[in-house]
Design goal:
It is built from two helices and four strands, in the order E-E-E-E-H-H. The strands form two sheets. The chain has a two-stranded antiparallel sheet. A two-stranded antiparallel sheet has the order 2-3. By secondary structure, it is an alpha+beta fold. The chain has helices at 29-36, 42-71; strands at residues 2-6, 10-12, 18-20, 24-28. The chain crosses the membrane at residues 52-69. Keywords: Membrane, Transmembrane, Transmembrane helix.
C-alpha cells in the first residue's frame, strides 16, 4: 500500500479540498514503519495502563477529598 505525503504544509481550500503547498510524494508502506517509529510492546502497554490507573486514582481521591472538605 502506498501513502501520499506532502513535503510542504497541508491546508484546506475554500470548499474543503486538501491543498499541498509543496510537492506530493508517494511513500511505500514499509517506509512508513521507519517514519512512525516502533510499535508499543505488551510490556509498554502494561506499564501505561498501570500509570493511567494511578493517575485516575489520584485525581479521584483529590476530588473526593475536596468535596468532603467543602461540605464541612
Amino acid at each position: 500500500m502506498n501513502f501520499i505525503a506532502c513535503d510542504g504544509e497541508w491546508s484546506a481550500g475554500a470548499s474543503g479540498e486538501l491543498l499541498c503547498t509543496g510537492q506530493l510524494v508517494s511513500i511505500a508502506d514499509d517506509e512508513m514503519q521507519g517514519l512512525i517509529g516502533s510499535a508499543l510492546t505488551w510490556d509498554d502497554v502494561s506499564e501505561l495502563q498501570g500509570e493511567a490507573m494511578i493517575l485516575f486514582a489520584t485525581v479521584f481521591g483529590f476530588l473526593v477529598l475536596k468535596k468532603v472538605l467543602k461540605s464541612r
